Predict the structure.
Amino acid sequence: MLAGTAADARIRPAGELLDAATPRSQALRRAADRGFLVLCLGFTALAVLILGVLLFSIWQDGHLRVSMDFLGNYASRKPADAGIRAALWGTVWACGICAVTALPVGVGTAVWLEEFAKPSRFTSFIKLNISNLAGVPSIVYGILGLTAFVRAFGMVDADRPIEIGDPDTFLYLRLPFGNGVLAGGLTLMLVVLPIVIVASQEALRAVPRSLRAGSLALGATPWQTTWSITLPAAVPMIMTGAILAVSRAIGEAAPILVLGVPIFIRSVPNNLMSDFTVMPMQIYDWANRPAGPFHELAAAGIIVLLAVLLTFNAVAVVIRQRLHRPLQ
Amino acid sequence: MPDAHSVTRAARAASVALGRGTPRSARVREVRERAIRASLVACATLSVVTTFAILGILLVETGQFLSMPEVSVTEFLTGTTWAPLLGGKGQFGVWPLVCGTLLVTAIAAAFALPVGLITAIYLSEYAAPRVRATVKPVLEVLAGIPTVVYGFFALSVITPFLHDHVSERFSTFNALGAGLAVGIMILPIVASLSEDALRAVPRGLRDAAAALGSTRFDTSVKVVVPAALSGIMASWLLAITRAIGETMIVALAAGGMARMTIDPAAEVQTMTAWMVQMFGGDAQATGVEYRSSYAVAAVLFAITLGLTMVGNLILRAFREEYD
């Protein structure tokens, strides 16, 4: 008892520095700790709850509308006949174009920044610029796509376009592109490019220096080293980043909307200049109508959209787990 | 350690390189290396070209808009009435659109910044690994949901809830419903980026605080959060930037009435919603209303670019380095 008090007396000065040693303040601090934990649990549960309510309400609204007819029919003024076929294929085309253009350009930029560029003003300017581009709202990219791709900066008269090939076949090009699927895909490429670049940079940075040193020491050139050693080692992480980027592109509506794509599309693209719409645009159009059957269609469209995204992300997880071999 | 497989590959690459070691092949190789390097530089330059193209387009089009006879620069920058659709007598003061954007953003931030930060503190300082393994994927799913889905959620769930349980004043379009949906959208950004910043704080700091008698709350609030402050601030700024530029949610749920108000039940129009109305509607591409959307886009671009740059500065200037 007495010894305890003496010990208390000795530790008190150190404790007071922490304003913490008296039993009362200790109890208060314990209470604060517990109260905070309750707050934490509440907020975290809120996040989980929101996701649950969101998914449940959309399933409730839309699951009766999802059918083979819904996937196979074009948009219609009559809700009973309406489907998402044009938007589904439009998304496949636009995001396909986005992926095949954004991947080489993004990885190329990352390879140059990480493997070749020497520190200079130009290099640090490009790095700063990429992080700034990541903060640009996607609707602003839509304006760039409208001017650069749809209208070709007004350099070619849109009423008398330069045409190559036959509009009924795949081999058809037109300048300016107009609001065809190529313009849409390239606009989405601009939106996701910063994501691909940053993910690829991180992937390349994660490859151990020793691999490059070994290759260079054996006499390979810098590019041979990059192509046969560094890039293969970085592929799983690059692919994960690329799939996240394409997921983003699949969900983007704003930049496509700015391009002025027509709302009623009753065809599937057959070449790069074809009219198109994408799933988020179709959902927006349905959701923008008064509540009722069109809102059910919007919910059904969202179910299809989320199913596509989920499949895509599942592929990303599989790739990450299959290909990822720790290198160190 | 490099594994055997990579070494074999390195050796193969090298032997290819050495095997063609004649002067002519060396020259070919050098030309190829240069060509590849040039195309890589071209890729990197595209991002710079993108920035300058955006800047150029916005400047030129905004200049053309502001030089139209119906418009004046002072009115655009200081006017408090946005009513461009009144035929020849439109009024073009940008402030109502800016205020609409700020109101929605403020609601979103008031919800997402504290909730996101506290979720991050919980995940990084308190949660058991098993809880973390459940909550992280939930946040990732929330982050991956397209914004048009949140817009529909605001219309079909949040606003009806506000109307039935909070006040009859919440009609189809209102700032609070849209703001909360934007808040849900940016919540995972705040939570996961703040968590990264918190987890980057070295364990030693926590151990030291615990050894001095701190509770976990003391450690979190007095030691870990201050140490991670630059990362937390950067995540907040990024989230706010995303909220300001968010388009589909506000186009669906906030309405189309440009006005200066702080009433969360009011129908408001944001800068992005105006652009949607113009670019997505049937407005004539030569009309003054259509042109005005470029000027609004320029204001939006200036605000978001400014915030992004401030975020980068904070990250660089206040980064706490621990080794």
